[in-house]
Amino acid sequence: MKDSIIKQEDKAHIWHPFDQMKNANILPIIKGEGTYVFDEDGKKYIDGFSSWWVNTHGHCNPHIANEISKQVQILEHVAFGGFTHPQAVKLSKRLAEITPTDIQRFFFSDNGSTANEVALKMAIQYWHNKGKARNKIIAFKGDYHGDTFGSMSATQIDNMNTPFEPMLFDSVFIDPPQKENRTAVLATFEEELATNEIACFIYEPLVQGASGMLMHDAGILSELIGLCKKYEVLTIADEVFTGFGRTGKLFASNYMQEQPDIMCLSKGLTGGFMALGITAVNDKVYNAFYSDDKSKTFLHGHSYTGNPIACSAANGALDLFEEEHTWENIARISEKQAEFSAKMNEHNLVNEARNLGTILAIELKTNEASSYFNDKGKDAYKFFLSKGVLLRPLGNVIVIVPPYCISNDDLDYIYTQIEDYLTLQEA
Ligand SMILES: Cc1ncc(COP(=O)(O)O)c(C=O)c1O
Asked: Can you give the pLDDT at residue 76?
């Protein structure tokens, strides 16, 4: 069948992210509504991965759409250097109330990678401003923090960044903490901190998303953050994915006793409507830059920093977190995901099913090594698409991260398709 005009023109001009363009089969989507998106022929798809985990309250959520629509008539943008506006101020005040108590300052950028890039630059300059040479970053093996150079340097996931490796700075990578390796991880971690060379510890709290939703232990992670406090190492929680209800609580950090100095937010921040990143910091970080000495200024910013439309989307999304039904939905989805996770753990083609809150990952058994580059998920992707479900597996891991408005019927439909897919594999 001949490609539609939009497909042909897309093929002629667009370079899509994360796809090998030689064999990419790009699907035009022309409309979104709640849990669903629609293609050119009007075929409906359940968005089972919240469009790369950004969509929290459903596509074209009327409340957020309305807030944006009001804002575009008032002020679309103003430079954030030297100027401010009501939407950014309102958003910052609200975030100050819901992020950990010490965190009261918010630096704006455009996405998850830049939120982390800003955090890493702040951590390095924090020590520079104090006249101390601490330039190393510590992170978990399997962490993904984004695609800018700083965040790539703190990322270690399969061979994703091989071409850039000569240009990346040295980070220390340690095993994510599990009950079984607790003593070894704590010892290695403390040894590294004791060198006094580590500027900061950046971590994906509890769930390593891009690695296939690998999950680790909250108690030990909290101990690691505590050790950082002892050695005065700054802590950065990358809540880009885990923030805004994904793990069942507002932030994954809410599962831990020890809280970070810096928290990075994006994705669900605007409910999936607009590109916005926020690097949230406590006074300890902020005060290291607050000075009469100009050289201590944080010389970083983007043209669209603090965009009022993006901030209005974030304020709209936050309104919805103040409504009880959002939390009822998160609890309902979490329960369903936990039940299906238990069922999948019994399946003979499943290596492991992992679940926390609204997140479910089903790692399929495979002859090749389990990795981001494993091809196993490609067939699964096509199968689900033909059944009207958008799921973008990570290698051999099927991931279900739905918008919070998804119904039980639609969740059951996704589960049935996964079971059917597995039955076909058995045949
Ligand atoms: C934990 C985490 N950090 C950072 C990023 C990068 O965010 P963005 O794609 O908005 O740059 C992602 C994206 O998936 C992520 O999951």
From this structure: 98
